[in-house]
Amino acid sequence: MRAMHRYVIKRLLMMLPTLAGAALLVFFLLRAIPGDVCEVRLAGTGLYADPAEIELCRENLGLNKPLIVQFFDFVAGYFTFDLGESMWSGKPVTYEIGLRFKLSLQVAIMATLVAVLIAIPLGTISAVKQDTWIDYAVRTFSIAGIAMPSFWLGILIILGLLIYTQKLFGVPWMPPIDYVPLFEDPMRNMAQLIWPAVATGYRYSAVATRMTRSALLEVLREDYVRTARAKGLTEKVIINRHALKNAMLPVVTIIAIEFAFLIGGLVVTEQVFNLNGLGKLFVDAVGAQDFTLTQHLVMLVVLVAVLTNFVIDIVYAWLDPRIRYG
Amino acid sequence: MATTEATFDVTELDSLRKPWYVRFAELARRQPLGTAGAIVVVVMLTAAMFAEFITVYDPEEASFESMLVAPNAEFWLGTDAFGRDILTRIIYGARTALFVGFTAALVGSVLGLVLGVASAYFGGLFDLIFQRVVDVVMAFPLIVLALAVVATLGSGTINVIIAITIPFIPQCARVVRSNALAIREIPYVDAARALGYGHQRIIMRHMVPNVMAPFLIMFTSFVGQAILLEASLSYLGLGVQEPTPAWGLMLQGGAEEFAESAPWIPIFPGLAITLAVFGFNLFGDALRDVLDPRLRAR
Asked: Looking at chain A from residue 183 to 242, which residues have their Cβ under 8 Å from any Cβ of chain B?
């Protein structure tokens, strides 16, 4: 057990340089963008802006402080639990992010569920029927998922909904635009979020289907599967009891990593479905050069990704002693 | 034993002597999906190279007499809100997609290859620092990093290529490094060291050729990913700019505005993106199956 403790501490410490590097990268990348939020706000429309006014705005927002001081303020926010205010709206960053986080998290969970429900059965069938027409059909379906831009699939879904509801009910129906929490009005919530979840979930199922197929193909070549066949076990028992369990580790990993990236990576899908989630907030914040909000938003996405990787590594080490003793 | 070897050689020579179409048919039978992918890639390359000879319309010139024309004998895939022929813009768009796709994939994967092999070969502090940098870049979702880079550099084709290339480098480096770590332990690398060869020669002549299989697989998948990313950035208005014909750009604005009244505007460019990425992925998959013996049929 001491080996496991040591491994957890080592792995936790390894997260720190990644987070520090991400903070440095996002901080300096944003400062490399020509202009700042004051210019966008006061002169963004092409109108004349008083330089003194711009300077005053910079002073109020702390943009004229030395870069090192600004960086220190940014990082110190995490230790004092005060992330500051959005440079654009003036509202607390925690409020701006919290408002959208619920929506993005729900879409990510629903998309992951759609992906799992498609990927595992299809990947298994594809591996078991390798090089038959079923395998080709599943592979074509999954590669189409990777190839299809999710924003285009979103447009097709909206187009389909419009056409079919027009034909069926005489009036076209569109998913609601305003977000209602799941427990307040489940029907309205689902009517809005199911479509982006399907568009994103199909795309992410493609990667997981391919991973299930290739992991299962490798496991099916193992000696213990041959032994199970030699014992006279049925193919169904071999797949369900022996092969699938052992092939699931890389599949769960890929699903978890994708889930982490879905939290902040739904930039384009949110644009198509007009969802006010973290992705849209990111695009708006970058456009307005709202440094404070963009920095914390990116750090949230990175933190979720790094923590997910940490949990995956710990689960791996728990399952496989060679990793923690390595 | 000698007889067996002789027979094997003759068979190999026989298969090489077969005409190209017979060998192609055999390959198509073994890898039907890969062949379909290769055909899509070839069609796309042809469209990109000979666009001027394939279509008579100008991809950028607006024509107000033929705005929003539905698909007909004159305009096979209809026209957009500026009266430009959609098929022509898709054909010319292949040029943009391939230029961005190939350049970003090639630069990203080659830099990733060299850095990944060097990281595995040198090990120690260089490897440790480089891997932490890779961790940092890979912690960002692809689109978020690309958006941040485009915001810094500004939009336009070259900046989009740079924005797409940067996330590819660590991805390729990580995969190549794990393969190169195994190769570093093989005696021929020790032998090369013992012969007094320099680091550059050992890396470029002895290690790089042996990680070509994962490199090629990464490269083909990067081309598809780059085409998708370019389309996504252009769709958000941060990629290639009007009037350049680009598939993602064709979906921007037109897609939502005309979804109901002129559905051909959002349908065909999206279909072109899907087919192109589909082709590259199928081709890459077949390549992986051929290069990785563990994945061949039982």
From this structure: 214, 217-218, 220-221
- What does residue A85 show for φ and ψ, rounded to 5 degrees? -110, 155
Mean pLDDT of chain B: 86
Statement: residue A33 has pLDDT above 50: yes
Q: How far is A265 from chain B (nearest CA, A)?
A: 6
CA dist A296 and A95 (Å) reads 12
Mutate to test the interface with A, among B31, B135, B149, B230 (most CBs of A within 10 A): B135
> Which pair of structure tokens corresponds to residue B271?
């279909």
Task: Considering only the beta carbons, identify the residue of B33, B141, B149 that sits closest to A139.
Answer: B33
Are B270 and A149 in contact (CB < 8 Å)? yes
Are the beta carbons of A126 and A135 closer than 8 angstroms? yes
3-state SS assignment for residue A16: helix
Half-sphere exposure of B40 (CA within 13 A, CB side): 23
Give B-chain residues touching A207 at CB under 8 angstroms: none
Q: Coil, helix or strand for A173?
A: coil
- B247 or A164: which leads in pLDDT: B247
Q: Which long-range contacts (CB under 8 A, 24 or more apart) does A226-231 make?
A: none
Q: What is the pLDDT of residues B141-153, one digit of tens each?
A: 888 888 888 888 8
Distance in angstroms (rounded) separating the CA atoms of residues A202 and A195: 11
For residue A294, the distance in angstroms to the closest alpha carbon of chain B comes to 10
Q: What is the Cα–Cα distance from B181 to B173, expressed in whole angstroms?
A: 12
- The whole-number pLDDT of residue B2 equals 43
**Quick check: B3 pLDDT over 60?**
no
Beta-carbon contacts of residue B189 (< 8 Å; ≥ 6 apart): B183, B202, B206, B207
> Which of A156, A158, A302 is facing B140, going by the closest CB pair?
A302
CB distance A279 to A269 below 8 Å: yes
Choose among A140, A152, A264: nearest Cβ to B273. Answer: A152
Strand partners, B137: none
Are B116 and B184 in contact by the 8 Å Cβ rule? The answer is no
pLDDT value at B1 more than 60: no
Contact A17 B135 (CB under 8 A): yes
Task: Please report which confidence band the pLDDT of residue A158 belongs to, taking 50, 70 and 90 as the band edges.
Answer: confident
In degrees and rounded to multiples of 5, residue B209 shows phi and psi of -60, -25
